[in-house]
Write a structure and sequence with these properties.
Layout (H helix, E strand, L loop, with lengths): L6 H22 L8 H14 L8 H8 L17 H7 L7 H27 L5 H9 L5 H9 L3 H16 L3 H12 L17 H21 L4 H8 L12 H4 L3 H21 L4 H15 L12 H14 L2 H13 L14 H28 L2 H4 L5
Helix pairs in contact: 1-5, 1-6, 2-3, 2-4, 5-6, 5-8, 5-15, 8-9, 8-14, 9-10, 13-14, 14-15, 14-17, 15-16, 15-17, 16-17
Length: 389
């Protein structure tokens, strides 16, 4: 079926998804406990940037000047570990009081995810009416990675939108635009870097253009924030103490930051090899995005929102090929990741504490399911070739 929507219907699709996302997420957020904790560090950094100062001054100093309590004693970071792109995303909201800023950021993330879901409709041509697809996307408002990401103040909608846009640009083989957006995305969260493997299937000239554009896109936020990448990296290593709390292989298997980086790079090498050997664009991107969640050392539970375009691709591909395995793998993934992330009480013995202690293994097992589904679908000609956008 055609997925070319008139502008009016496309806007309607986004509005339907946004309304459902907002309504359902608000139900889940009634049990909110984080109250935008992750947004605080970007908010105070953005305020410093607006004042012409470095956004990477000590967090304690920035929090005090902005009227926030001191950094809690159990927090391991003393500087904002988020890269400059994340800080710049917060600048438009930094002039408001924090409660208003958090509400506005949540609204922006809801809108971004709705747009990402609409882009997925055009990319994958699901055999359903646009309004049904829009309504299905709204159900993600109850999905733990999304609503808990809103709770913490994470850029969850932007993560999904970045993958959807990169997917569209890779499909169209627009190397300059793809590279530039990829570079920008990596300055919001670095785990996007693995998506560069799609360029291994392009002619050398296109791959070089993409690499150059990525360098420009990645350098721009650092230049605007007046910080060298290596200086930010030095400060960001403070976050390495949290690797064990992320639900990826480095934390679960005790590999630490160094081992995690090696594992992430190894996954990129393998994917670049199979892409070079002829793996099509769609499965390459699906496998790369999923591999990032399995191997990136700080792949927090909220970051699974970046796999929502992968969920759309698997769902449509499973329907077209009749793959029951892909269907059940997708259902299992969505169900397991619907379990909220919890911090267990060291002295607790209840179900919540048991889940908290096992959450790393649960997340790792869940994230392996879309990878398995992607491998299964990549072997089927009906979806292994990239359809026209």
């Amino acid at each position: 079926m055609s997925t070319s929507l008139p502008w009016g219907r496309a806007i309607g699709q986004v509005l339907v998804t946004s309304a459902l996302l907002a309504g359902l997420a608000s139900l889940a957020l009634r049990s909110s406990k984080a109250h935008g904790d992750d947004l605080v560090q970007d908010d105070v950094s953005a305020r410093a940037w607006l004042d012409g100062e470095s956004p990477y001054r000590p967090l304690g100093e920035l929090r005090q000047r902005a009227g926030f309590p001191p950094v809690p004693g159990h927090v391991l970071v003393r500087h904002n570990p988020h890269p400059p792109g994340a800080v710049l995303l917060t600048v438009p909201f930094a002039g408001a009081d924090f409660g208003t800023a958090l509400t506005l950021v949540r609204g922006a993330q809801i809108l971004a995810l709705a747009i990402a879901w609409a882009v997925a409709y055009r990319l994958f041509a699901p055999p359903v009416p646009w309004w049904a697809w829009a309504a299905a996307g709204g159900v993600f408002g109850l999905w733990a990675p999304f609503w808990q990401g809103l709770d913490w103040g994470q850029p969850v909608g932007v993560l999904a939108l970045a993958v959807a846009v990169l997917w569209a640009l890779a499909r169209a083989e627009r190397p300059v635009a793809f590279g530039f957006v990829l570079g920008l995305a990596c300055t919001v969260r670095p785990f996007f870097a693995i998506l560069c493997v799609v360029a291994a299937g392009w002619p050398p000239r296109r791959a070089l253009l993409a690499a150059g554009a990525a360098a420009v896109g990645g350098a721009l936020p650092f230049a605007l924030c007046r910080v060298w990448p290596w200086d930010w990296l030095r400060l960001a290593t403070e976050a390495g103490g949290y690797v064990a709390e992320a639900g990826s292989a480095p934390g679960v298997l005790g590999l630490g930051t160094g081992g995690g980086v090696v594992l992430y790079a190894a996954a990129a090498v393998v994917l670049a090899y199979v892409r070079r050997r002829g793996l099509a664009t769609d499965p390459t991107l699906a496998l790369a995005a999923t591999a990032a969640m399995l191997t990136y050392p700080l792949a927090w539970f909220q970051y699974d929102v970046s796999l929502i375009p992968v969920v759309a691709w698997v769902a449509v591909g499973a329907h077209r090929t009749g793959s029951r395995f892909a269907v059940w793998a997708l259902v299992g993934y969505l169900a397991l990741r619907a379990i909220p992330d919890v911090i267990p009480d060291p002295n607790g013995t209840g179900l919540v504490d048991a889940i908290g202690r096992a959450k790393g293994w649960v997340q790792l097992a869940a994230r392996s399911l879309p990878l398995a589904a992607g491998v299964a679908l990549a072997r089927r000609p009906a979806v292994s070739a990239s359809a026209p956008s």
